[in-house]
Design a protein that fits this description.
With 241 residues, the chain is of the alpha/beta class. It has a single domain, classed as Alpha-Beta Barrel (TIM Barrel). The chain is built from 8 helices and 10 strands. Helix 4 links the parallel strand 6 and strand 7. The protein has a 5-stranded mixed β-sheet with strand order 3-2-1-9-10. A 5-stranded mixed β-sheet has the order 4-5-6-7-8.
């Protein structure tokens, strides 16, 4: 079983300011026992050519990915070519699926934000291969429950994703995929339902701290956050079974 996360942003993101580099992310993921990652920048697919050997040395497979805004809604497109950057409508997405083999995931589908899919997911259910269980939840407030109901009703697998914008988010919610260490095989296994999700609720304190940092980021740059995470003694992150 490969421990994986398929919804991660890094300092290469053209939309969100992220205070760590892609290599910082890979290093931290390796420490936490991850075997596969998808770097899903907003609107742009990261060129993995130089990063793939770096990740492989640390036991991690990189899956090509992008968080694309389609008709105003966020959609995760994994293991497609750079043609995924030109998908603007759900009709475009249908054509991409016909032309290429990849994986389409519904992220934070029913969270209270305009960019979340809501009714579009029901309307275009046949275009999605899996539904995300998003790490931003607490024991008493969990917007993932409707996504679980949708997945069960439509026979879709559920993947655990961190939607990582800060390194300390990595490791509370993730996926375990029954597949060889290969991007094609990992995506095929998810589509076939050979995936489990592990989800640990955040405390209200941690959830509030993460949201505050996202809304009012602390100046300092990539190395500052990497050092904070490495030096922290009060953050406990679960490991894969």
């Amino acid at each position: 079983m490969i421990k994986a996360d398929f919804h991660i942003h890094t300092g290469d993101d053209p939309v969100d300011p992220i205070p760590y580099s892609t290599t910082d992310l890979i290093d931290r993921a390796a420490q936490l026992g991850y075997g596969a990652l998808a770097i899903t920048l907003h609107e742009r697919q990261l060129d993995l050519a130089a990063l793939t050997p770096y990740a492989a040395e640390r036991g991690i497979v990189l899956v090509p990915g992008i968080e694309r805004t389609i008709e105003g809604k966020h959609v995760l497109l994994l293991n497609f070519t750079s043609a995924s950057e030109r998908v603007d409508t759900f009709a475009d997405l249908a054509r991409l699926r016909r032309d290429e083999r990849g994986l389409v995931i519904a992220p934070h589908a029913f969270f209270p934000a305009r960019s979340c899919l809501w009714g579009r997911l029901e309307r275009h259910a046949d275009l999605f291969d899996a539904v995300e269980y998003n790490a931003m939840f607490t024991a008493s407030l969990d917007f993932n429950q409707r996504a679980i109901a949708f997945a069960r009703a439509h026979g879709k697998p559920i993947v655990g994703n961190g939607d990582v914008h800060r390194l300390r988010q990595l490791g509370t919610t993730y996926s375990l995929v029954d597949a060889p260490a290969d991007a094609d095989a990992i995506c095929a296994a998810i589509a076939a339902g050979r995936v489990q999700y592990v989800a640990t609720p955040l405390s209200w304190r941690d959830a509030a701290a993460i949201m505050a940092d996202l809304l009012w980021p602390t100046p300092g740059g990539p190395r500052d956050e990497t050092k904070r995470v490495s030096d922290s003694t009060n953050i406990s992150l679960p490991q894969s079974a």
